[in-house]
């Protein structure tokens, strides 16, 4: 073996571990590799998942998860029915995580299912999956656990996607769906009493509401009385 060939062989041996590490870790799930799930810091919480579900998933998948959300009729494909226990019983949590994180196109599915891995933390995705499992099993959420989140944190988890960081109505979801969400500035909020705002958050808007108002879900099953009051107090700082 010549000196040049020997040097090439030695370099290849040295580089093989690095090449292996770069080549196999992030392969798409559709190529036969096992879907990856990021390490989470907290135990998945279905109640937290319900709050996130209403903020991110409700508009397409519906209040009860049946795939009949207020935006579903505008889509070219029907959103998944999370109450279909037969179908979702065949899906692992890892597969659901991969789908939510990477979106529909990455899995040869609907373009309307956006990748949420850039918007939701691993803990948030896992908690959302925990709530989807509640829907799969046709169970009711356990609301005995009291949240220690502030009004600002609740707003960030549940409201910001439509209403925007400071209530401008230009959240990521509202932009994506082309919704004209009413801004929550002092002038607009002055038109509503505290009781009226509470009822809107708790009960949502009536089913026959027209315009963007129909995209406001009922939060009464996911937020406690204190949480609703706290998030309204935070909104009033806008």
Could you explain the architecture of this structure?
By secondary structure, the chain is an all-alpha fold. The chain starts with a helix and ends with a helix. The protein is 46% helix and 0% strand. It has 2 domains: 46-136, Cytochrome Bc1 Complex, Chain D, domain 2 (Orthogonal Bundle), CATH 1.10.760.10; 151-235, Cytochrome Bc1 Complex, Chain D, domain 2. It is built from 12 helices and no strands. The chain is globular.
Write the layout of secondary structure elements.
Layout: H1 3-24, H2 46-56, H3 58-61, H4 85-88, H5 93-102, H6 122-136, H7 151-158, H8 160-163, H9 172-177, H10 186-189, H11 194-203, H12 225-235
Helix pairs in contact: 2-6, 7-12
Proportion of β residues?
A: under 5%
Helix content: 40-55%
Shape category: globular
CATH homologous superfamily designation of the largest domain: Cytochrome c-like domain
CATH-assigned fold name of the largest domain: Cytochrome Bc1 Complex, Chain D, domain 2
Mean pLDDT: 82
The second-level CATH architecture of the largest domain is: Orthogonal Bundle
In angstroms, what is the radius of gyration? 22 Å
Order of helices and strands: HHHHHHHHHHHH
Secondary structural class: mainly alpha
End-to-end separation: 75 Å
Largest sheet: none
- Unreliable segments of 5+ consecutive residues: 2-32
Number of strands: 0
**Total discrete domains:** 2
Give the helix tally.
12
Highest CATH level, the class of the largest domain: Mainly Alpha
